[in-house]
């Protein structure tokens, strides 16, 4: 005889379901345990004062200044006691009124006022000045500016001397010289810029030998006239 097992008495039949439910329950309890927070039950009191020290009502003392009320304004009909009537019979010295004719001299004619010419000491370009400076020997030239420039070139060529120090070292270049012919015809304000000090020194020596000139004029007034002169130093 083969014994038959009752399927209702099989305990292994639902073990998988019970295991899944138990695992879910354990996970839920673990999560709640991790998320659980506990707070201390303490009362909060503001720092610096006790709750029992706060009064229910603040009494503000009343201060009486004892200020008297202002006096009433005086009535317009009341005459002050120190009022003294003015005697209208007394003679007063009247202020003297001067006639307008005494305040001014005889009328001045505008045409009689002399004109004052504004004198400026600013240099005037040699291309804009009415009368250019005259180089000695150009007094009778028709084009005095052209004669001035040609005389400058001849002066440089006549007095030119190549510096020995620059010749030995092969120093060449151009020296730009600027100067001003003042109101007396003298050479002033000499400035120069070149590639070497020896060349600048030679250019200054040439300019220093320039003669005194007739100053340039703007109208009938002598003016200062600037002039620039490039001097080229070149070895052959």
TrEMBL record:
Biased region (Acidic residues) positions are 83-92
Q: Which domain of life is it from?
A: Bacteria
- Per the record, GO CC terms? outer membrane-bounded periplasmic space; plasma membrane protein complex
Membrane topology of this protein: Single-pass membrane protein
Q: Where along the chain is composition biased (Pro residues)? A: 67-79
Task: Give the stretches traversing the membrane.
Answer: 12-31
Q: Which GO terms describe its biological process?
A: protein transport; siderophore transport; transmembrane transport
Name of one Pfam family that matches? TonB_C
Q: Where this protein primarily resides, as one coarse class?
A: membrane
- The TonB C-terminal domain, residue ranges: 147-236
Residue ranges, annotated region (Disordered): 60-92
The UniProt similarity line reads:
Belongs to the TonB family.
- Put simply, this protein is called Energy transducer TonB
Q: In which organism is this protein found?
A: Sinomicrobium weinanense
